[in-house]
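Task: fold both queries, return tokens.
Query 1:
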Amino acid sequence: MLTVALSVVVGGCVFAALMALFHWRGFLRTRLLTLRARLGASERDALKLFTNQKRSWLERLLAESGSHWKKEQVVQACVGGAAAGLVAGLVLGGLGLSLVGAVAGAAVMPLRLTLQRDERLRKCDQQLPQALRLVTLSLRAGQALPSALALAAREGPAPLKHELKLAVDEAALGVDIGTVFEHLAARLVRCESARTLCVAVRVLEQTGGNLITVIDNIIDSARARTQYQAKLSALTAEGRWSAWILGSMPPGFFVLAGLLDPTYWPTLFGDLQGAVVLAVGTAMWLAGVWWTQLIVKSGQQVAMS
């Protein structure tokens, strides 16, 4: 009981220190913005100086996921999750389980953002042919490429319209259209059509050509690729679900056994022999997951041939 109370106190002190550090950093940031505004600089320029025009992996993850969370809030959520997992582990099974709980609690928010990013990029990839169709209609009506892009940003579906709006804003600030499409392809990191469009615009800037025909070919290729991926997903669904079920059975048994037998987790984490068994079992489980993934990938290659 004393160990649990001491751990809670230490965790609370660490959490309070981190919160104070974040609030102090926000106070310094506000002072910097105020000073730059008095000197005549805009807030965007001040933020660029403050961030040194470089973004960490967390900032990129937030931007790609479309989340409204700030970096400081995500870090606070991770720290809070780690503290909750630490306390829960100490209450349920001792020091070893508390460390596992702390790692699991800290990983909840990044995992959620990663899944949100993957879903958002998948939607953008599916919506890009429709937006490009609007672009070709505008180009056939005699509008310039920036105007056609602005129309797609207004009429296109979310979340792709937000990325197109950023591209339109860049073009309005004087950035050349090739660089605008390069930035768009960099933001849509898993969209092959965006990368192809970027290359096509860059090439046509140098050589000239019919942009409408190129975009039509990109649309046809994107739709054919979407249909092919849907067919491939249907053919390999059984193997992928079997892999998920087989991979989740050992962790599920671990949780169920610990809930049914109160001495199960303390034996594994508190005893040397239990730690050896846990390490060997985890290694075998990871090897099985890796081997199952190889089997599923080989099945996908067979279905593709």
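Query 1 returned. Query 2:
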Amino acid sequence: MELRQLRHLVAVVEFKSFTGAAAELHMSQPALSQSIARLEGELGCQLLNRNRRSPGAGLTPTVAGQTLLTDAIGILEAVDRAVERTKRVSDGDRAKVVVGFASATPTRYIKEAMRLDDLAVEIVPKHFGWGEAWPRLKGGEIDMGFVLSPPGEDFGLVDLIPIDHFQRFLALPDDHDLATKPFLTVQDLGGLPLIDPGYEDLPELRAFWLLEPWPTGVARGPIVTTPSVAIEETLVSVASGIGAWVTSSIVAEQFPRAHISYVPLRGVDPVQVSLARLPEPPAPHAASVYKHLAAVLNAPQ
């Protein structure tokens, strides 16, 4: 069994046809069909249902095929991450460790990470956008990163070392009736439009930023979808009156803006900031940085 055969299988299942998969893989359809046939021959089992009686259904994996497919995806992702890490250390004497951060990452955390550059590694800071932490970790683009999540939630995707907790705030136009309140509860937000936080692939995180579970008896306002992909753009939407935005005290501190008021939310869990990495064994230099940085950030200030 070869890696290219696993890539062929994944593509065929994704496109549900040899034709679409062959085009994606830049190879001929007969060559792709032969590759899958050889793989089935090596394993001694059928991997795909050809659905000749229902051609519209396309190719689907058999039970054996689905079993191999699940492992194949994990194997290929691990190989791609290994290639990415190897490329990063191939152009210098020091190993590179990429630490991801977002605009909402506390500045102190990034500074502490950069101070580790005098170790036997080179720290490479990598900014990621809204909701990009998880795919960048899985894709091997970063070795570790600072992420925001509900307290105690790791989504089963990463290893987390909690660092601190921060109160959630509501960003409002400064001329809104609620903007002058010393604090707000969810009960105060009846009918208020909230800006959609995204995170469709992480429903627990999406629910957290939408203040769910929403209390009974309080009218739920509309969830407003905007094209915003960055904090600055979202704040423009808030100032324009499109909707209020549930955020954190980190953003309130690091992004003070004219025409925006940040009001503390009471009665809701804080947001947890953690240092995250994939649960698979990391490269030794990355493991050392992960452990050292977590210890520094968790030390009493």
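Both queries returned. Flag for query 2: The chain has ten helices and twelve strands.
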